[in-house]
Structures are given as C-alpha cells and as structure tokens.
Amino acid sequence: MEFSKGDIVQLKSGGPKMTVKGIVGDSVQTLSRMENKAYKIHGVEEGTVICEWFLNNELKSGQFQPEMIIKSE
C-alpha cells in the first residue's frame, strides 16, 4: 500500500490514529534532509514510514514498516 505525507494511519493491530510525517529515502514523501540522514545513520531502512500522534497531549513519533499499518477512515 502506498502512503503519502499527511495520511491518517493506524497499526493493523489497533492503537491510536497517526499522521504520516514522511517516508525514509522517498524523494516525494520526503523528510527534511537532516532527518532523512539521521534515520539512515541509525540503520532505518528506506521505505520506513515515520508517523506522529498525540498521547495525553504529548507528541509521540514512531517508525513502521508499510506492512504494519493501514490507512484509517
């Protein structure tokens, strides 16, 4: 499944709704150059989807393989 920056997604197993921030190594759904480089330096694979969400008014973020998430309604 293709994801775009700004898509609302959720883990297939449930959990909070998240917003796609970007995709590592993707020239269209790109993160900032510095973020992209930092993820790559830390061994994050190209194609990994970076998401953000709020939990108790605190901004959280995570990285997910595309197979782990679905677009949310």
Give an overview of the whole structure.
The protein is globular. The protein has one helix at 33-41; strands at residues 8-11, 14-23, 49-55, 58-64, 69-71. Helix content is 12%, strand content 42%. The protein has a five-stranded antiparallel sheet with strand order 4-3-2-1-5, with no helix packed on it. The two termini are 15 Å apart. The protein has 73 residues and is mainly beta. 16% of the residues are buried. It has one helix and five strands.
Report the radius of gyration as a whole number of Å: 12 Å
Structure class: mainly beta
Summed up, the helix count is 1
Low-confidence stretches: none
Oligomer type: single chain
SSE pattern = EEHEEE
Instruction: Order the strands across the largest sheet as they lie in space.
Output: 4-3-2-1-5
Cα separation of the termini: 15 Å
Largest sheet: 5 strands, antiparallel
| Record field, number of beta strands | 5
Mean pLDDT: 93
Strand % is 35-45%
Keywords:
single chain; mainly beta; five-stranded antiparallel sheet; 1 helix; 42% strand
